[in-house]
């Protein structure tokens, strides 16, 4: 339910801002706007303004601004309505091509501006992220039976390159690997003083299955579940686990491995450091039916840092983040055409809903950051030179400006059919991809 609410709020805001851009620029150039719609299909709510009908429609996967005379793309030869639209100074058709291009460009522009504004809000308010994201990619744990273990990656390895590209931290590593879903990539590993190349398969859905490596995480208790063996035994947050049944513990995953090795319900003796004091805690694990193993009811403490800046600096950071994500989006688009990025990485409405719900659960600033990122993607997506998208209309208008005459109406119709076919195929693919991910 939370995912649905988060999705509807997000998509409603993005569509409204996008269509508002078209609306305001159309009005600025004196074009009569007949309909302003949030959503497609039959209207759920409708009201009449001075000359524009506003509505919220049933299918919240888009919207439109219907301008008077926008269908009259060539000089009419018959039909009263077309002739009126052709001659009326308030029609879209009668406006100069540069004005039409700006009206088309305004929707994506407003999405990009919204992204920058939200980034400013996030960086001014402060956003929390795991501290390890900015640390070198040093492997603290290799999951048994994982892609990484099968490839030969070991604890202590440091990944310095992915497919020849230098990787400075876990954040860059996550992005690069995320774009290679379903493919095999070459990791350049620093093992001691030796550099080696290891090919590693990347799972098709990295949101459900990862390659099996994690950063070094200290064995510090982050949370204790209510009524768990850990709570009953007196374990507390920020307790440091030093040993279990006499076996020294240096990282959280060493403790995880020990717990995974348990085949029976036998007591554990934990050596704990608490407030500079060394104490022992005795407890007995319980079998967890959900995860099918013995647990004591604790989770690790992830070190985090708050990214927060003064207002002026937040503006600079917002533009830097926009530039960084713009480059990343460009690489993804190019990679899809060259085959470097798998189409299986694409997500549709279901994936966005899940993602937005998780972001809202994490916190309002994370949710706003997510909206900003998707708004940026929506803006650039609409600028692609595909018929029926804003970029497609701009592309046609540019061609007409070069040849100094309108394209034949039939040519525009065929281009529109091609555009609908491309977008329809893409939509079917991403929804099918979403369903497969959910089923997995």
UniProtKB/TrEMBL annotation:
Tell me the protein family, please: Belongs to the peptidase M50B family.
Q: Which SMART domains match?
A: PDZ (SM00228)
E.C. number(s) listed in UniProt: 3.4.24.-
Example GO molecular function: metalloendopeptidase activity
The transmembrane residues are: 6-25, 102-123, 380-402, 414-432
Q: Which Pfam families match?
A: PDZ_6, Peptidase_M50
Please report the stretch or stretches of sequence annotated as the PDZ domain: 137-169, 199-249
Which branch of life, at top level? Bacteria
Claim: Protease is one of the keywords in the record: yes
What EC class is this?
A: hydrolase
Q: Where in the cell is it found?
A: Membrane
Query: What PANTHER family does the entry give?
Result: MEMBRANE METALLOPROTEASE ARASP2, CHLOROPLASTIC-RELATED (PTHR42837:SF2), REGULATOR OF SIGMA-E PROTEASE RSEP (PTHR42837)
Q: What is this protein called?
A: Zinc metalloprotease
Q: Name one GO biological process term.
A: proteolysis
Keywords from the UniProt entry: Hydrolase, Membrane, Metal-binding, Metalloprotease, Protease, Transmembrane, Transmembrane helix, Zinc
Enumerate the InterPro entries for this protein. Answer: PDZ (IPR001478), PDZ_6 (IPR041489), PDZ_sf (IPR036034), Pept_M50_Zn (IPR004387), Peptidase_M50 (IPR008915)
What are the names of the required cofactors? Zn(2+)
Membrane-related topology note: Multi-pass membrane protein
- Gene Ontology CC terms, in alphabetical order: membrane
């Amino acid at each position: 339910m939370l995912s649905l609410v988060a999705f509807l709020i997000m998509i409603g805001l993005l569509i409204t801002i996008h269509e508002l851009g078209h609306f305001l620029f159309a009005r600025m150039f004196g074009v009569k706007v007949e309909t302003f719609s949030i959503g497609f299909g039959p209207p759920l709510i409708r009201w009449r303004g001075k000359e524009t009908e506003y509505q919220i429609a049933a299918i919240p996967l888009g919207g439109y601004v219907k301008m008077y005379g926008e269908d009259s793309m060539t000089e009419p030869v018959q039909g009263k309505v077309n002739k009126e639209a052709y001659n009326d100074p308030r029609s879209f058709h009668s406006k100069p091509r540069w004005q039409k291009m700006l009206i088309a460009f305004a929707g994506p522009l407003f999405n990009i501006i919204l992204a920058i504004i939200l980034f400013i809000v996030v960086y001014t308010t402060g956003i929390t992220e795991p501290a390890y994201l900015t640390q070198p990619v040093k492997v603290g744990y290799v999951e048994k039976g994982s892609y990484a273990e099968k490839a030969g990656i070991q604890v202590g390895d440091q990944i310095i390159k992915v497919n020849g590209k230098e990787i400075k931290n876990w954040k860059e590593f996550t992005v690069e690997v995320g774009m290679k879903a379903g493919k095999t990539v070459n990791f350049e590993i620093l093992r001691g003083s030796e550099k080696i190349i290891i090919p590693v398969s990347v799972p098709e859905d990295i949101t459900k299955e990862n390659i099996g490596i994690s950063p070094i995480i200290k064995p510090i208790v982050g949370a204790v579940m209510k009524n768990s063996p850990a709570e009953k035994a007196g374990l507390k947050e920020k307790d440091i686990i030093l040993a279990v049944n006499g076996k020294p513990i240096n990282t959280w995953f060493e403790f995880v491995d020990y717990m995974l090795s348990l085949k029976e319900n036998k007591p554990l003796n934990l050596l704990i450091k608490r407030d500079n004091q060394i104490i022992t805690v005795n407890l007995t694990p319980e079998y967890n039916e959900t995860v099918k193993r013995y647990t004591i009811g604790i989770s690790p403490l992830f070190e985090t840092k708050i990214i927060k800046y003064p207002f002026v600096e937040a503006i600079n950071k917002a533009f830097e983040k926009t530039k960084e994500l713009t480059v990343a989006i460009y690489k993804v688009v190019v990679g899809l055409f060259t085959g470097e990025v798998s189409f299986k990485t694409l997500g549709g409405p279901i994936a966005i809903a899940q993602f937005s719900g998780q972001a809202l659960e994490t916190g309002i600033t994370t949710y706003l950051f997510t909206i900003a990122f998707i708004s940026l993607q929506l803006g650039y997506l609409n600028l692609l030179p595909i018929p029926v998208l804003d970029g497609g209309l701009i592309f046609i208008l540019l061609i007409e400006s070069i040849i100094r005459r309108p394209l034949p109406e039939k040519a525009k119709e065929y281009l529109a059919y091609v555009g609908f076919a491309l977008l329809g195929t893409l939509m079917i693919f991403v929804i099918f991809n979403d369903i497969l991910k959910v089923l997995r």
